[in-house]
Design a protein that fits this description.
Helix content: over 70%
Order of helices and strands: HHHHHHHHHHHH
Structural class: mainly alpha
Strand content: under 5%
Radius of gyration: 19 Å
Shape: globular
Largest sheet: none
Number of helices: 12
Number of domains: 1
Number of strands: 0
């Protein structure tokens, strides 16, 4: 067992000042709070933050996945307690996503990743604008009739649609190396027509499963840092839990508005990633 002093000296945290560690903790809390509230892991936001603090990309990626998993556990627990998870959708999208991610990862060498990331950016921008426009268009009187939380009944056509959506997003995510919870969210709301609160809880659990599988690979490769995971995991778990509680306090229109804003904020991060990959 490595002595505590050695663990600290080999951790990227040892290179940061006290105020930088405090700032990183606050930012991690904020990202996780929003993540828990809207049901998106937001790893695409957390990762560049870690890199900006001088943490190497492999370790930052491993820590990012670990934090995404532990924060999804606490927020997922709250969503489960509040009955905001459609487990049928979790299975029918989650399983094809695993299969699709494997297929996408195999085909990634023959696909121009920057083109896919560019398409993801456009999808996020469009979905965010649609969500904002709809939330701003709905009046309070209409919103009152939209408060019932409904999970559409399964039919052969709907089951096929859920499987197809899961597989497609899995292929896309596997090809570009991302979990793509931000893409899955508009698909759950706009394609599968889930109530925003149900979509948030469901997307959280799917992200948890996908993120956990990715973290196993990072763990095997040793691309992790225990102290960083502990620091950001604890602050993130508190933030995500409080964010998930906030979900239950918001009406449908405000949830849709929050989802739209987050999608528009995340889109530029995807755009930057696409620019970095160009012309590969």
């Amino acid at each position: 067992m490595m002595p505590p002093l050695d663990i600290w000296s080999t951790s990227p945290l040892s290179d940061l000042s006290t105020w930088e560690i405090a700032l990183l903790s606050v930012l991690a809390f904020g990202v996780s709070y929003v993540s828990g509230m809207v049901g998106m892991a937001l790893g695409v936001v957390r990762l560049p933050l870690l890199i900006a603090f001088g943490i190497s990309i492999p370790v930052a990626a491993g820590v990012n996945l670990a934090v995404s998993v532990v924060t999804a556990i606490t927020s997922g627990w709250e969503h489960w307690r509040s009955d905001r998870i459609a487990f049928r959708v979790v299975v029918l999208i989650g399983v094809p996503s695993f299969v699709g991610a494997f297929a996408g990862s195999l085909a990634s060498d023959s696909i121009r990743v920057w083109v896919l990331l560019g398409l993801v950016t456009l999808v996020l921008l469009w979905s965010g604008l649609v969500a904002l426009a709809r939330s701003l268009r709905i009046r309070q009187g209409e919103e009152a009739r939209d408060e019932t939380v409904i999970v559409p009944l399964p039919s052969p056509r709907r089951l096929s649609l859920e499987i197809a959506v899961g597989f497609f997003i899995g292929v896309l995510g596997g090809a570009v190396g991302l979990v793509l919870g931000t893409v899955r969210m508009p698909a759950l709301v706009n394609v599968l027509k889930l109530h925003p609160a149900i979509a948030i809880g469901t997307n959280t659990i799917i992200g948890l499963l996908v993120g956990a599988s990715g973290f196993v690979g990072k763990l095997i490769n040793g691309d992790i840092d225990i102290l960083l995971i502990a620091l950001l995991g604890i602050t993130g778990m508190v933030g995500s839990y409080l964010g998930a509680r906030r979900t239950g306090q918001m009406n449908t229109n405000n949830l849709r508005l929050a989802i739209g804003i987050v999608l528009l904020v995340v889109a530029p991060f995807m755009g930057v990633r696409a620019a970095i990959e160009f012309p590969n």
